[in-house]
Recover the amino acids of this structure.
């Protein structure tokens, strides 16, 4: 695996080796890698792509400075995991490299409705930051395929919209399933910050999602939503939202509406740690 810290070096390498867009599979991350990230690398490798992973802790997508400051960093271990996975290139830029003229000089995109709800509403400016950095990375890496995780469902929709806004018609976006721990907890870099008692409870989020999914044909969503909120509150979580939405548009739904494709989404804090997850109702 070759590691590059600047866009110019990475681009020189790709052009020297004649590695062109159709061959490049790209996996952008913020580091503190886990098996969920590696599943994206594996998907790209399986597709026969020249696999480029980036690690960049993007300051502009953190609406909460404390969350940014405390975000886990484990670059040496990350490099080891990427080596084991057979990743071809790691792009490891600095903040100055990604925002040379400051964050205001990097294009910002209008995602409309998508950035006004759920994560967009709870984390003002978050998706603007995601758009800025993914736009910049796509411009540098020029991949043919972008591998992202369903774990961040709304982000997948934002990135799909970004592709449209940038007119990247030849870019394929591959959405990979959420990797979970044994108790169903979605793998996340932030899980490392959970204390043992918090970790023991964190699987409840997935249990809530499964109960929402199970009741889709006969249940009443507001009732299940309240049961889940009450359960989480009793266990010490602060629930930000438990929502049901159209899986294609993310239009929020008041109640189950089969056979429309639907997704249930959840965000809750336990102590300082904010966890999100989702499940398709199928
Ligand atoms: P992050 O480092 O959190 O920005 O995530 C980088 C990429 O990995 C994003 O496309 C995420 O959606 C994806 N990802 C994060 N956690 C998981 C997971 N548990 N399973 C699958 N993909 C994931």
């Amino acid at each position: 695996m070759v590691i590059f810290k600047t866009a110019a070096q990475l681009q020189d390498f790709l052009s020297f080796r004649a590695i062109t867009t159709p061959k490049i599979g790209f996996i952008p991350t913020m580091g503190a890698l886990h098996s969920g990230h590696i599943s994206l690398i594996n998907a790209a490798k399986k597709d026969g792509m020249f696999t480029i992973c980036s690690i960049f802790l993007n300051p502009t997508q953190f609406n909460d400075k404390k969350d940014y400051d405390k975000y886990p960093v484990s670059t040496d271990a990350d490099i080891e995991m990427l080596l084991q996975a057979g990743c071809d290139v790691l792009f490891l830029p600095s903040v100055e490299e990604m925002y040379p003229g400051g964050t205001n000089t990097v294009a910002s995109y209008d995602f409309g409705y998508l950035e006004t709800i759920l994560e967009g509403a709870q984390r003002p400016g978050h998706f603007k930051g995601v758009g800025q950095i993914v736009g910049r990375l796509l411009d540098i890496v020029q991949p043919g395929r972008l591998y992202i995780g369903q774990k961040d469902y709304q982000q997948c929709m934002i990135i799909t919209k970004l592709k449209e806004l940038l007119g990247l018609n030849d870019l394929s976006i591959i959405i990979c399933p959420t990797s979970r721990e044994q108790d169903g907890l979605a793998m996340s870099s932030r899980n490392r910050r959970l204390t043992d008692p918090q970790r023991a409870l964190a699987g409840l989020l997935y249990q809530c999602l499964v109960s929402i999914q199970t009741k889709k044909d006969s249940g009443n969503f507001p009732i299940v939503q309240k049961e889940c909120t009450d359960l989480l509150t009793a266990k010490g979580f602060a629930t930000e939202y438990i929502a049901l939405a159209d899986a294609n548009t993310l239009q929020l739904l008041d109640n189950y509406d089969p056979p429309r494709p639907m997704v249930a989404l959840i965000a809750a804090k336990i102590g300082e740690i904010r966890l999100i997850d989702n499940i398709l109702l199928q």
User: Anything to note?
Assistant: The chain has a mean pLDDT of 97. Strands lie at 2-4, 24-29, 50-55, 89-91, 145-149, 172-176, 237-246, 262-270, 273-281.
